[in-house]
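Structure ticket #2291
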Amino acid sequence: MIEKNKIDEILKEYDLENISISAIASHSALDVFDGANEENFKTIAVCQKGRDKTYSIYFKKRKIGNREIGFIDNIITLDKFSNIINDENQKKLREENAIFIPNRAFTSYCKIDEIENNFFVPLFGSRKILRTEEREEEKNYYWLLEKAGLPFPEKIEDAKNIDELCIVKLHHAVKKLERGFFTCSSYKEYIEKSENLIKQGVIKREDLEKARIERYVIGPVFNLNFFYSPLFGQIELLGIDWRFETSLDGHVRLPAEQQLSLPEKQRIPEYTVCGHNSATLRESLLEKAFLLGEKFVEACKKYYGGIIGPFCLQTCIDKDLNFYIYDVAPRIGGGTNIHMAVGHPYGNSLWRKNMSSGRRIALEIKMAIENDKIEKIVT
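Resolution: structure written out below.
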């Protein structure tokens, strides 16, 4: 792990009046860049050739007549996202006084070891805690949730013990950043579905052997987008989103009779996330939601030295209004683009202006600079 004093030394060379905010141009980067623009920071989108037009053309800052539109100032285009780890690309970021915002694309395309040990650019957030998102790690987010005393779906150790609706969590064989999840209610169904998906090339047998099996919590899904400020020691629930998932949502829109008539290759839905929507909680559940966030922050302080900025607890709520955390993003969540420009419902109410996750990140950086505490929010 890069020592904190190394990052602090780099920060001493920065021109704090000309900070840039940078991120891998994918996932929720638009929210990051829009929020940075709202707080008058320059933005640097790190793009990959062949998938850069969203950032290099469509949302690039430019003039139309007398009007300035767009919010992305600069582009670094690479053959592969992972090349951002190369020394010359890190140097470009440091020369622009860049503070880097980690998102899921960053930790997916770049190796965690490289991020921890070889990426000498100040990160907004906790560098140590990014590894917990990998389910294969021994001390993953489930370990952290258990230490925090937080509720999560019961794990089934052996597929032969499946006796009610469960979900099997593993990677998609082809779309490696996506899911090859499937549900089953018995060992027989587990075998039938897994063999079918292996045959279709959706999952791999070696990934199935490492899959996590959980009891399925029947209820609506709420992704709680929190923010923890080390500057002021407060936790904020900025907003909530939920996901659209490819063929799963298509299945839900079909009457039961049509679902049963689907051919074998269409019968098992896929869970690839393709969009998000906004949500709010009934007010009597808000204290429960905040308690989840508070316990998570305390566990991060105890075991990882703290958490900085945004994190997302992905939850479902059962018929008795109990929360269960089924996934954790120890960085900005994937659904915050629904709030860029207009803000999050709860964040807006708290800050009395449009406050998306991206803008809240930029505001924390601005306040840290104003109070000469920038070292408190980067690792």
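Closing remark: The chain is about 35% helix and 20% strand.
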